[in-house]
Amino acid sequence: MLIYAITWSSPSKKAVRGVTKEIRIPTLEECDVCHGSGAKPGTQPQTCPTCHGSGQVQMRQGFFAVQQTCPHCQGRGTLIKDPCNKCHGHGRVERSKTLSVKIPAGVDTGDRIRLAGEGEAGEHGAPAGDLYVQVQVKQHPIFEREGNNLYCEVPINFAMAALGGEIEVPTLDGRVKLKVPGETQTGKLFRMRGKGVKSVRGGAQGDLLCRVVVETPVGLNEKQKQLLQELQESFGGPTGEHNSPRSKSFFDGVKKFFDDLTR
């Protein structure tokens, strides 16, 4: 078995929909001179005289007999008197090879892709093992992935949060319009069904959840400051009861806390 790590940029459209990617890996392949036997052409490995080809020897320890790996042939059962000049008796040589790996839709960090028979060649002519490609997914600059769902933050100004409107948001299929209702509070989640990641094991596709963040305006000019001051006064101050119910609830709680302390 051979394990190879691959880093994949996701959730990109290719990673979510699936793609074929070429990789170049170092591996051990069967020696093309001795064909994996490890012996020089024209010769053959000899049966180990110690274990008689079993690879095991029996050692007595008092009244007990214990099976151990043959120390002469290291468990192979054969000895190479005339080793191959290319592989020096190992039967395998180091090489690099290029493979096409089909990355399935919805792949995520820690997933493994099995390529049967593409691992290292077995010792002394044994069949090659399997190659496991382990995927490491890079963090996306916009989306965060949780299972098959995607999350993204959508900043809006306080005017849109109060009055409502439409704003374009990114998805893996392109931009779509998100309708923001009036009186939207920061942290509110809007779900776009089917805009997430397809399950790598099949089944329904995940959703995209947009988390609204209401931004405080910066770099205000004098006119804008004056308008905001007038707006605040129309609210009845920073703790206006009608327009800021959460502020009223908070300050009512603070007042009750201190009233209880003085009783």
UniProtKB/TrEMBL annotation:
Cofactor needs: Zn(2+)
This protein's record includes keyword ATP-binding: no
Major place of residence: cytoplasm
GO CC terms, sorted: cytoplasm
Keywords, in A-Z order: Chaperone, Cytoplasm, DNA replication, Metal-binding, Repeat, Stress response, Zinc, Zinc-finger
Cited Pfam families: DnaJ_C (PF01556), DnaJ_CXXCXGXG (PF00684)
Keyword Zinc-finger attached: yes
GO MF annotations, alphabetized: heat shock protein binding; unfolded protein binding; zinc ion binding
Stretches assigned to the CR-type domain: 18-96
GO BP terms in the entry: DNA replication; protein refolding
Stretches annotated zinc finger (CR-type): 18-96
Subcellular locations according to the entry: Cytoplasm
Membrane-spanning parts: none
Subunit-structure text: Homodimer.
PANTHER family in UniProt: CHAPERONE PROTEIN DNAJ, DNAJ HOMOLOG 1, MITOCHONDRIAL-RELATED
Family membership noted in the UniProt record: Belongs to the DnaJ family.
UniProt protein name: Chaperone protein DnaJ
The organism of origin for this protein: Escherichia coli
